[in-house]
Amino acid sequence: MGRPGDFAIEIVGDSMLPWYPEGTILLVRPNIRLSSGDPVIAVLESGEVVFRIFYEGSGKITLASLDGDEGHTYQFDSKGNAYVKTVYKVIQSMRDEAVILKAMRERGLLQALEKYAQL
């Protein structure tokens, strides 16, 4: 499903466990419109690169972790933010996305994260 300009990135760390274990390869597409619930790669102002789930509320952007640790979730104002340099949409991984999304829905995880779209 790759296109010119897409790139691959490998997950390091455990903030997206158990859904995306360390070593998972992600296909990332720059310059594509994001929607709440999209998996994304974000480059923070510090240079740190993180894999999170994107949510946009009326005044806040949330990059949510899937591991349940609120310390791994980032929130910032949608306007005038200097915290995030760029955000890219993850369009595919080496795992079965449909199975992952179904399992997250069945466990109530996606519904729990939707609170971030209300901010």
What's the overall geometry?
A: globular
**Which stretches are low in confidence, meaning pLDDT under 50 for 5 or more residues running?**
none
Number of helices in the DSSP assignment? 2
> What is the strand arrangement across the widest sheet?
1-2-7-3-4-5-6
Can you count the beta strands?
Answer: 7
Largest sheet features: 7 strands, antiparallel
User: Mean of the pLDDT scores?
Assistant: 88
Q: Quote the beta fraction.
A: 35-45%
Find the structural class using helix and strand composition: mainly beta
Query: If you compute it from the alpha carbons, what radius of gyration comes out, rounded to the nearest whole angstrom?
Result: 14 Å
**Secondary-structure element pattern, one letter each:** EEEEEEEHH
How much helix is in the residues?
Answer: 10-25%
| N- and C-termini, Cα separation | 33 Å
SSE layout and pairings?
Elements: E1 7-10, E2 25-29, E3 39-44, E4 49-56, E5 60-64, E6 74-77, E7 84-93, H1 97-106, H2 109-113
Antiparallel strand pairs: 1-2, 2-7, 3-4, 3-7, 4-5, 5-6
Characterization of the model:
The structure is a single chain. With 119 residues, the protein is mainly beta. Helices cover 13% and strands 35% of the residues. The chain is built from two helices and seven strands, in the order βββββββαα. It has helices spanning 97-106, 109-113; strands at 7-10, 25-29, 39-44, 49-56, 60-64, 74-77, 84-93. It has a seven-stranded antiparallel sheet, with no helix packed on it. The chain is globular, with a radius of gyration of 14 Å. The chain starts with 6 loop residues before the first strand and ends in a 6-residue tail after the last helix.
